[in-house]
Amino acid sequence: MSAQYEVVIGLEVHAELKTDTKIFCSCPTEFGGEENTHVCPVCLGLPGVLPVLNKKVLEYAVRAGLALNCEIASFSKFDRKNYFYPDLPKAYQISQYDLPICKKGYLEIEVNGRKKTIGITRVHMEEDAGKLVHGGATIATSRYSLVDYNRTGVPLIEIVSEPDMRSAEEARAYMEKLKAILEYTGVSDVRMEQGSLRCDANISLRPMGAKEFGTKTEIKNLNSFRALQKAIEYEIERQRDILEEGGKIIQETRSWDEGKGVTVSLRSKEEAHDYRYFPDPDLVPVVIDPQWVQEIRDSLPELPDAKRERLVQEMGLSEYDAGIITGSRALADFFDQVVAEYNEPKTVANWIMGEFLRLLNANNLEVAESKVKPRSLAALLKAQAEGTISGKMAKTVFEEMFETGKEPETIIKEKGMVQISDEGALAAVVEKVIAANPQSVEDYKAGKEKAIGFLVGQVMKETKGQANPGLVNKLLKDKLG
Ligand SMILES: Nc1ncnc2c1ncn2[C@@H]1O[C@H](COP(=O)(O)OP(=O)(O)OP(=O)(O)O)[C@@H](O)[C@H]1O
Ligand SMILES: [Mg+2]
Ligand SMILES: [Mg+2]
């Protein structure tokens, strides 16, 4: 009985730009700091001051736009978006409305092996708002609210997608790819938890085959990829339940409640703001020299998709491994640096995908926080390749490197871990084990290949795991065969 619905999702993403100073004044953009110390008459909106555009902001916006395959407008302008709320002292936000700096871009995602292009409607520049700190648990129960204007005027780009996504997984994949591209181009810190990358998700459902979009809701307060995915999944079910009961979706802004795992209404369309956009008379239009755009284009680094392709084609990595490694620039750089010292890309990829990511995740650390440096991992892999230590020892050494930041050579020495690869030194132990296990020797000679495994194990036991197992195997076969 129940109808089939198609999910429609579009994302609005705000990224703080990594400039030293704010968008229209020279206050620092540094995160944190004592409240209301990174402020001046311009970002406080005092009368009689004039904003001046930070050229670096424009450069970063163009850089992001080019990386997202956008057209760069040779003429754009700033507009005032009026709203009255204490996080913005001027009672308007300087933003861009009808003539944004970038438009008509796209990026590519891949979900379950299927590639898909997601359109980007526009990328525009705007200023961030301040932070409210409420006296009570919620704004409704607070007797007072405090405001910190340090963040006011920190430069943002807003990246608006087309309503091209059809599932929570696609939305997450889009966000992950967008984050990676912004990280690669170096325009933003892209930390969702710290709020330098923020995402609002617009969601609607429509009967399968319908031409018109359904009524959408907009979800805010999504502070991680997981929150984004969970919130969308929840919202899809909430809307589906309403539609299946014959109800109507109310166009509204909702907030994701991470603790309860639900979305709750913030404000409906009736309460929606009338922003009364108009051109900001304090700022001149932005006119860009195509030559400068070309210079920025030429300075773009290799982007995630191209890099992934290269790791697959030239280095023989699997699509999956290459996707994970290039998913973050920090990890991709780490990989490149290890390979520069130890040119066995597949082995390096295995270690990064296995031990390195496992320990980072278990300790909740970022690549940048790792005590293991690329050069040290390369040294460890060399020691293993040369037979100084076994694969099993290498894992133990790596764990200690990860914990202490010590060099592999130091740990190998301290633990006396050096693998015994000297035939002379092993011969005596091999003799001893053969003498002590006549039954296994007989089994082996009678054709039971497996018996050799037991004998190798005995030699490993005698040498406390330090014997080179390959060599032991060979010595045993020589002696018995
Ligand atoms: N019916 C729909 N279902 C799902 N998403 C939609 C639908 N219609 C539009 N969208 C998406 O909603 C987003 C609208 O963002 P946009 O910034 O243009 O408008 P806004 O939300 O009204 O403005 P703002 O929140 O910045 O004041 C876009 O990402 C768009 O793709
Ligand atoms: Mg918007
Ligand atoms: Mg919106």
What's the quick description here?
The chain contains 15 helices and 16 strands. With 481 residues, the chain is α+β, with helices and mostly antiparallel strands.
Q: Please, how many domains?
A: 3
Helix content: 25-40%
Please compute the radius of gyration using only Cα atoms: 30 Å
Q: What is the strand content?
A: 15-25%
Low-confidence stretches: none
Largest sheet: 9 strands, mixed
Q: How many helix segments?
A: 15
Mean pLDDT, as a whole number? 93
Rounded to the nearest angstrom, the distance between the terminal CA atoms is: 74 Å
Outline type:
elongated
EC number: 6.3.5.-
Subunit structure: Heterotrimer of A, B and C subunits.
Pfam family, one: GatB_Yqey
Family: Belongs to the GatB/GatE family. GatB subfamily.
Report on the structure:
The protein has 481 residues and is α+β, with helices and mostly antiparallel strands. It folds into three domains: 5-292, no CATH class; 302-415, no CATH class; 423-480, Arc Repressor Mutant, subunit A. Helix content is 39%, strand content 20%. The protein contains 15 helices and 16 strands. The chain has helices at 55-67, 168-185, 225-244, 290-298, 304-313, 319-326, 329-341, 345-362, 374-385, 391-404, 408-414, 423-436, 438-445, 451-462, 469-480, and strands spanning 5-16, 71-72, 75-76, 79-82, 92-95, 102-111, 114-127, 131-134, 145-148, 155-161, 197-207, 217-222, 252-257, 262-268, 278-279, 286-287. It has a nine-stranded mixed β-sheet. Helix 3 (225-244) links the parallel strand 12 and strand 13 (252-257). Helix 9 packs antiparallel against helix 10 (391-404). The termini are far apart. The model has no long low-confidence stretch (mean pLDDT 93). The structure holds adenosine-5'-triphosphate and magnesium ion (2 copies). Residues 12, 200, 218 line the site of one magnesium ion (MG). Heterotrimer of A, B and C subunits. Residues 333-480 form the Asn/Gln amidotransferase domain. Pfam families: GatB_N, GatB_Yqey.
